[in-house]
Amino acid sequence: MVLQESGEMYLETILVLSQKGQSVRSIDVAEQMGFSKPSVSRAVGRLKQGGYLLMDKSGELTLTDAGRKVAETIYERHQVLSSLLESIGVDPVVAANDACKIEHAISAESFSALKNYLSGLSFGDRTE
């Protein structure tokens, strides 16, 4: 199963919610993403079918190794791209929204090159 952008977004959201130390259920994902419960339920079903997600009897969602790998990749892209955009003067809300769009479209090769380039800069320590 090839993941679409929406699937990546669900996995990223589940990762972020789980990092807060709480169990994650479909309702938490719906609230975080602003989606309807039926939409989240359909997406969860597809992600389970694709081997990216598990759901226990109580409804708790857990990323599989494959799901965690995708989620961590997307989340890292989001963090790096948001920080970069903010460092060049983009409003944090706009930077986060733009990073969310870019993170799904950028190739692994381009992102790797960007990260390597940025590692030589102190873009996160910009002073005004």
Search tags:
single chain; 128 residues; mainly alpha; Arc Repressor Mutant, subunit A; Diphtheria Toxin Repressor, domain 2; two-stranded antiparallel sheet; 2 strands; 5% strand
Any overview of this molecule?
The chain is elongated, with a radius of gyration of 16 Å. It is mainly α. It has 2 domains: 5-69, Arc Repressor Mutant, subunit A; 72-123, Diphtheria Toxin Repressor, domain 2. The protein contains 6 helices and 2 strands. Strands 1-2 form a two-stranded antiparallel sheet.
Write a compact overview of the structure shown:
By secondary structure, the chain is mainly α. 66% of the residues lie in helices and 5% in strands.
Using the 3D structure, state the CATH architecture of the largest domain. Orthogonal Bundle
Proportion of helical residues? 55-70%
- Rg estimate, integer Å: 16 Å
- Identify low-pLDDT runs: none
Distance between the termini: 46 Å
CATH superfamily of the largest domain: Winged helix-like DNA-binding domain superfamily/Winged helix DNA-binding domain
CATH class (first level) name of the largest domain = Mainly Alpha
Strand content: under 5%
Helix/strand/pairing category: mainly alpha
* Biggest beta-sheet profile: 2 strands, antiparallel
In the CATH scheme, what's the topology name of the largest domain? Answer: Arc Repressor Mutant, subunit A
Shape: elongated
- Name the strands of the widest sheet in spatial order: 1-2
Give the mean pLDDT: 89
Q: Number of DSSP helices?
A: 6
Overall number of structural domains: 2
Number of strands: 2
Order of helices and strands: HHHEEHHH
